[in-house]
Write a structure and sequence with these properties.
globular, Umud Fragment, subunit A
Length: about 160
């Protein structure tokens, strides 16, 4: 049974806690996993890889990056946003790789193979994690938009 009477601040608070807990889990596990050639990545709920990844999944990336082929879904550090991202490889040219989200109309900017965390080899979908991360991400987006509006208002 789903309850609709839970106050919104409680839901948002819980979502933030879940987000922080999984960020800490990721930070603690990755050094250990790296010794065995793996990297843990929590997929951002942006929808760019829908329907393959909808957001909130925990994925395991296998290193090294040299074994990445066109068509593979990889985890990498986005060159502009500096966040961990999961997208599909569309072109590989020596040390440069082109990626694109499955539901994105345009390709991403090229990335260097050094930015690649690895090829995604396993996907784990914990119940409600995606929902909690989407709530936390929505709240962060709303806060950033409000900050932007304040800055824009002061500049005028």
């Amino acid at each position: 049974m789903i309850r609709n009477d839970i106050p919104r601040p409680a839901v948002l608070g819980f979502a933030r806690v879940v987000d922080k807990v999984f960020t800490k889990v990721q930070a603690r596990l990755n050094p250990r996993l790296k010794k065995h050639g793996y990297h843990l990545l929590i997929v951002n709920p942006s929808g760019s890889m829908s329907p393959t990844l909808v957001g909130g999944e925990i994925v395991l990336c296998e290193s090294p990056a040299g074994q990445v082929d066109v068509g593979d879904v990889i985890g990498f550090i986005h060159p502009t946003l500096k966040v961990q991202t999961a997208h599909r490889v569309t072109r590989k040219d020596g040390e440069r790789i082109q990626t694109q989200g499955d539901s994105c109309p345009e390709q991403d900017e090229e990335i260097d193979t050094n930015a690649i965390l690895g090829r995604i080899v396993a996907i784990f979908r914990p119940p409600l994690l995606g929902c909690m991360l989407r709530i936390a991400d929505h709240e962060k987006t709303l806060e950033n938009f409000q900050k932007f509006q304040k800055i824009r208002g002061q500049a005028q």
